[in-house]
Amino acid sequence: MSKEIALAFDAISGIKDLRATLTPLGTQIQSNSMVDILNAINIAHEAVK
Question: What is the pTM of this model?
C-alpha cells in the first residue's frame, strides 16, 4: 500500500457512521449520509495534499 493511500485511509477511518474498505482496485466508502461521504472525500484529499 502506498504512503498516500495509507494517509487517506487513516484520515477517514475515524469518521463516525462511515464504513471504509480497502480493495486492490480502490477504497470503498459507505454511509447512510451523502454529507458524510462527501466529507470523507474532502478529508482524504486534504490528508494527501
Answer: 0.83
Q: Cell triple for residue 45?
A: 484529499
Question: CA 35 → CA 2, 4, 6, distances in Å?
Answer: 27, 23, 23
For residue 2, give every residue at least 6 positions away whose Cβ sits within 8 Å of its Cβ, in sequence order, or none: none
Q: Going from the first residue of the chain to its last (49 residues), give the mean pLDDT of each consecutive group of 10, the final group possibly shorter.
A: 91 93 93 96 95
The amino acid that residue 30 corresponds to is: Q
CB 17 within 8 A of CB 36: yes
Dihedral of alpha carbons 10, 12, 16, 18, sign? negative
Q: How many CA atoms lie within 13 A of 15 on its CB side?
A: 23
